[in-house]
Amino acid sequence: MLSSGNLTAISSGEFPSQRLVAWKLFFLPDIQMLEIFIAIFIFTAIRSLRQRRKQGLPVWPVVGMLPSLVTGLRSNLYEWITEVLYHQNGTFRFKGPWFSSLHCVVTSDPRNIEHILKTEFLKYPKGSFFRETVHDLLGDGIFNADGEIWHKQRKTTSIEFHSAKFRQLTVESLHVLVHSRLLPIFDRHFVEHLVPIDLQDILLRLTFDNVCMIAFGVDPGCLSPNLPAIPFANAFEVATEATVLRFVTPQFIWKTMRYFNLGTEKSLKFALKEVNEFAMNVIEKRRREKVNEIERSDLLSVFMGLKDENGEPYSDKFLKDICVNFILAGRDTSSVALSWFFWLIDGNPEVEERILEEICRILKKRGEAGEGSSAGNVRFEVEEIKKMEYLEAAISEALRLFPSVPVDHKEVIKDDVLPDGTQLKKGTKVIYAIYAMARMEAIWGKDCYEFKPERWLKDGRFMTESAYRFTPFNGGPRLCLGKDFAYYQMKYISASIILRYRVKVAEKHLVVPKLALTMYMKYGLKVNLFKRDKKEIEKYF
Ligand code: HEM
How many CB atoms lie within 10 A of CB 452? Predict the structure, then answer.
């Protein structure tokens, strides 16, 4: 034992042999500890890196695969997922920190996706993790509901969306939005030689006005000539971004941040106030109209006429959730899809030429009525839009490469085995990586990274694909309810633009995806518009 007396003697140099003993007693344990620590560190590092070969990513003690995820988040998360899936033959198990709820299985295998979305649909609801994560934004709306609440919303919406009245509303609203708003704004931009225009912003305005018109019977007028500031739109983007961050943050962290009103949770709270206010105004306006006996037949009015399981009319909170979900469904999906489409078209002028040629060939058939050669007056008919099959192929190809919903989520409620042999314990979260699917040679062949509308055509006719290989619209009982409308809308808007303008992405404009629920371009899409020369069109007549 060392007493304080010994220590004094050693430090004063009186007992050299004892000095050696003391040195050993004091420093050797430290050195041994250091050696042991280094040995453990090397062992863990080697073990973690070895697991990389087996599991796709190194698994570190305590934090699991989190360090790799952070690297992915810093660059392009979707590319990062693609890379890992590619090396793991389409499925990998992500191990989050032991104290978190980030563990999940990620897959891009079409067999697994069919199993989850269709064959074993009832075993794979959205689940409690998803519901809790997005509940502040989406409440009990259709995107976030399971079971009876989902089923009732789906049935009501499906009946409404398949009605003749709805179809008429979609056709009429698009005529107005494109010809009285979009094209005049483009013309003004062209005539006045303004700075490049943000096409993504314009398209978001258009689809927002459009979904409000068809779903709630209101026209917010976001796509007006002066392009007014839209507090709702900013708030909606902040809200979806902050919500998506929750998916990659350990639950107890974001919940603590929410409780103390900190960081992104604070922004989310502010943003939700704005978003909810907008939806509540729409509902209140509709209630006032009802009092004044103004009859409406849009989706919101249909829901307002229904009763809940207690026989009571739906609460304002639930109607608000329905509105917010439809805004997300209708605004953010087709607009971002079209933005990626125009970006791809700019890099592939031969595709643009073929689209233009197809539009002109269809217009030529107008015969005597032929306003065909004067692009300025052309308003497409429903049948003409249907005939644009090459355009449909090009839009599908853009959606394949840049799906508006790049990843989606399910939770298994009973132990299960996926068709590729992956074992799932009850409660496991399953992510299906739609963006990554487009980049799998096993699904789309060696040219999977190329933008090739031709892959959708057989003998010049558009061929649909299985929803489990081409999953941007989901599949099975939860297939997107707006798919037909979205195609009509995207074809109508893009054909109307391409017939009149060449859309060129502004020089040096950086195009990268943003981390949000839908795949926005992070810096928008700055473009210059060039009005087509009459000769460019006449050569096809
Ligand atoms: C390019 C355009 C679109 C794409 C890529 C798209 C994609 C999707 C996807 C991936 C889902 C499944 C979401 C999930 O369950 O997590 C979905 C569902 C849905 N979509 Fe779309 N969508 C588009 C346009 C629209 C439009 C314009 C509307 C309506 C105006 C719409 C209405 C819906 C509805 C109501 C659902 C919920 C279906 C359900 O859960 O039963 N979508 N869509």
Answer: 19
Of 279-283, 286-290, 384-388, 513-517, least confident by mean pLDDT is 286-290
The answer to whether the CB of 182 is under 6 A from ligand 1 is: no
Torsion of CA 143, 149, 154, 156, to 10 degrees: -130
For residue 155, report the distance from its CA to the centre of ligand 1, in Å: 14
Q: Above 60 in pLDDT, residue 18?
A: no
Contacts of 173 (CB under 8 A, 6+ apart): 210, 213, 214
User: What is the total residue count of the chain?
Assistant: 541
* Pocket of ligand 1 contains residue 478 by CB under 6 Å: yes
Confidence band for 388, pLDDT divided at 50, 70 and 90? very high
Torsion of CA 375, 376, 377, 380, to 10 degrees: 60
- pLDDT beyond 80 at 87: yes
What is the arithmetic mean of pLDDT over 9-30?
A: 51
Q: Residue 74: which pLDDT band, with cuts at 50, 70 and 90?
A: confident
CB of 166 shorter than 6 A to ligand 1:
no
Q: Which residue has the tokens 């519901």?
A: 131
Ligand 1 pocket, residue 329 CB under 6 Å: yes
Task: Quote the CA–CA distance of 221 and 230 in Å, as a whole number.
Answer: 10
**Is residue 24 predicted with pLDDT exceeding 50?**
yes
Q: Taking the CA of residue 28 as centre, how many other CA atoms within 13 Å lie in the half-sphere pointing to its CB? A: 6
CA distance 541 to 535: 10
CA atoms within 13 A on the CB side of 293: 0
Cα–Cα–Cα angle for 183, 184, 185, rounded to 5 degrees: 90
What's the complex ipTM? 0.98
Count CA atoms within 13 Å of residue 229 on its CB side.
3
pLDDT at residue 20 greater than cutoff 90: no
Closest residue CA from atom 20 of ligand 1:
480
**Residue whose CA lies nearest to ligand 1 atom number 17:** 480
Nearest to 248 by CA among 436, 400, 109, 106: 106
Is residue 273 within 8 A of residue 324, CB to CB? The reply is no
Handedness of CA 63, 66, 68, 71 (dihedral sign): negative
Return the top range by mean pLDDT from 284-288, 291-295, 467-471.
467-471
Question: Cα 318 vs. chain centroid, distance in angstroms?
Answer: 23
Of 13-22, 79-88, 438-447, which has the strongest mean pLDDT?
438-447
Token couple for 39 = 């040995």
* Secondary structure of 168-220 in HEC code, one letter for each residue: HHHHHHHHHHHHHHHHHHHHHHHHHCCCCEEHHHHHHHHHHHHHHHHHHCCCC
Closest CA to 324 of 272, 285, 258, 375: 272
Cβ contact 286:323 at 8 Å: no
Query: Is residue 153 lining ligand 1, measured as CB closer than 6 Å?
Result: no
